[in-house]
Amino acid sequence: MAGNQTKSGQTKSGETVLRRVWLALAALTLTSTLIAETAHHSAYSVIIIFAIAALKAELVLTNYMEARKAEPHWIWMYRGWIVVVTVMLIAGYLV
Amino acid sequence: MSDAPPGNPADRDPLHPGTSGIWTFLFIDMAVFGLLFLVYLSERNRLPEVYRLGQAQLTPLAGLAGTLLLLTSSWAVASAIHALRADQRKAATFRLTLGIVLGLGFVANKLWEYHLKIEHGIGPLSSGFFTFYFLITGLHLVHLTVGLGLIAKCRQRLAAEAGELSFQKLLENVGLFWHFVDILWLFIFPMLYLAGAR
């Protein structure tokens, strides 16, 4: 009984986090679209748009994929991919 | 000599998300997409005006709608896994159904976009940009369709197999695949639709 209550409590707080992360992801998506649609192509807009993509990927990785609970090397491998791809995209659009 | 079955202990740990194999598989798949992005950037730098004009012919609102559908579907699947761990089978089934419906919404949105392009005489061979557009979004769509099939299979088996560690691991693996498809789109969307289109 107590175990079930604890499990249920953990689920509720976990689900609150998931909902907040979804809200943040949706807000960041709207922000980057708005920047792309209103700002002229500039180094700043490119950097902000891809930095937002990287932040969103990090939120999905840590909260939806629960990478912190996986074997420790994976979170660094996946974060490495996010950083490399973000830097590559920013450089590719600015060169 | 131990009687324990061979393999990674993480694969039998209920607190470890998914199995070690799925983390390896997804990383390799991500690396392949990373290389695809690199070739796209290299070609874009060779013919910037062709790519800028191609990007300007896309509809950012369609990309935005797809992103929101996929993010919400990802939330539904993550939430279904939480419900399964708490043995809330009805909630888990409902959330998986929601994840599937939203994923189908993404497929419909993408097919509508393809239809509009083809109607305007634009195909994969129209320009270098559209070759990449159809190739990258098409490969992503194939991954997404596979993911939808896997979620539907898990939803079908949930009532009978919830409570078994092997099923929890299966659903976590499918969920990880689904979130990986989401992460790929989080980069494809700004790369093709947003940055440098103006």
Task: Tell me about this structure.
The complex is a heterodimer of chains A (95) and B (198). Chain A has a domain at 38-95. Chain A is built from 3 helices and no strands. Helices cover 86% and strands 0% of the residues of chain A. Chain A has helices at residues 2-38, 43-64, 72-94. Chain A starts with a helix and ends with a helix. By secondary structure, chain A is mainly α. With 198 residues, chain B is an all-alpha fold. Chain B has a single domain (19-194), classed as Cytochrome c oxidase, subunit III, four-helix bundle (Four Helix Bundle (Hemerythrin (Met), subunit A), Up-down Bundle). Chain B is 79% helix and 0% strand. Chain B has 6 helices and no strands. Chain B has helices at residues 20-46, 48-56, 60-85, 89-119, 128-161, 165-194. In chain B, helix 3 packs antiparallel against helix 6 (165-194) and helix 4 (89-119) packs antiparallel against helix 5. The longest helix of chain B has 34 residues, at 128-161. The radius of gyration of chain B is 19 Å and the shape is elongated. The N and C termini of chain B lie far apart (66 Å). The mean pLDDT of chain B is 93. Chains A and B meet through helix 1, helix 2 and helix 3 of A and helix 1, helix 3 and helix 6 of B.
Task: Show the helix and strand layout.
The complex is a heterodimer of chains A (95) and B (198).
Chain A: H1 2-38, H2 43-64, H3 72-94
Chain B: H1 20-46, H2 48-56, H3 60-85, H4 89-119, H5 128-161, H6 165-194
Helix pairs in contact in B: 1-2, 1-5, 1-6, 3-4, 3-6, 4-5, 5-6
